[in-house]
Design the sequence.
């Protein structure tokens, strides 16, 4: 098998036209250069260079080898640069797990900034609620997960990034919109739309209502955020949603939103990843950037 160092020496001699100049460029002695070329010709089984005085040029077999040597060495250089970039977090693949609403409303902004800083890092986004994201994280199917807290999982590191409030979302003109804050009993008898039944947010919402003796009259269960908001806007029911998912509708007054309970209904968010030693550099950079970006987005 041809050795890379032999190809480098051979290419250099062919380019500069002299063993002496090649030795100077490579920082080697001329006898060492000659020895390496003899070894290469023995391996190839044919003469590769013709020496005339102090100059040297490839033989026909050498011209063919030079053509392929340039291609091989170029590709090897590309591989070395790519590996170096990945070691430095400048290239590679980053897999992110997050819920559908986060993917729609929050991730585009931070991923746009991340892509500008790390243009050679490919991104793969897997949508799923917190428990599904944790399963993927444990199975090494994702590198970072945007999750709701608390979580208890061995060998998982969590960076807390902030809190958001879940609000009762009503159609414009609803009678309850006259109140600045709603109590669970205000929802008795009201048609209720559940967004994503199998999530911690739904458990939190239903737990708050049931603790006050309120059994919601569920008329729909939706797994699509935009469809949920459309149903509410059409007057078909109310829903409890994160404030940041309805900012556009609140601004154009197609929906109204009110806090639930005396203290409101709040939850905490975090970024989860596996142990530091097994986490790619790009993932750690994303966590730092995402923590700053999302904490501001929740507080906006």
Sequence:
């Amino acid at each position: 098998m041809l050795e890379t160092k032999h190809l480098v020496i051979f290419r250099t001699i062919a380019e500069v036209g002299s063993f002496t100049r090649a030795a100077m460029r490579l920082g080697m002695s001329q006898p060492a250069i000659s020895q390496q070329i003899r070894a290469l010709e023995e391996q190839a089984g044919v003469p590769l260079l013709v020496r005339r005085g102090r100059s040297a040029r490839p033989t026909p077999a050498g011209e063919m080898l030079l053509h392929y040597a340039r291609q091989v060495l170029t590709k090897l250089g590309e591989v070395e640069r790519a590996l170096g970039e990945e070691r430095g977090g400048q290239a590679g693949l980053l897999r992110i797990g997050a819920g559908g609403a986060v993917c729609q409303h929050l991730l585009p902004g931070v991923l746009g900034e991340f892509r500008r800083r790390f243009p050679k890092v490919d991104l793969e986004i897997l949508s799923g609620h917190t428990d599904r994201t944790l399963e993927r994280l444990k199975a090494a199917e994702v590198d970072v997960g945007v999750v709701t807290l608390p979580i208890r999982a061995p060998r998982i590191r969590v960076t807390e990034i902030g809190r958001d409030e879940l609000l009762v979302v009503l159609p414009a003109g609803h009678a309850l919109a006259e109140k600045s804050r709603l109590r669970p009993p205000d929802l008795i008898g009201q048609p209720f739309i559940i967004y994503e039944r199998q999530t911690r947010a739904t458990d939190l919402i239903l737990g708050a209502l049931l603790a006050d003796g309120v059994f919601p009259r569920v008329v729909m269960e939706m797994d699509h955020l935009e469809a949920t908001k459309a149903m509410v806007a059409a007057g078909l029911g109310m829903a409890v949603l994160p404030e940041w998912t309805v900012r556009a509708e609140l601004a154009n007054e197609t929906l109204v939103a009110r806090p639930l309970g005396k203290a409101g209904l709040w939850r905490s968010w975090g970024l989860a990843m596996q142990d530091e030693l097994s986490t790619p550099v790009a993932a750690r950079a994303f966590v730092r950037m995402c923590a700053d970006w999302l904490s501001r987005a929740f507080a906006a």
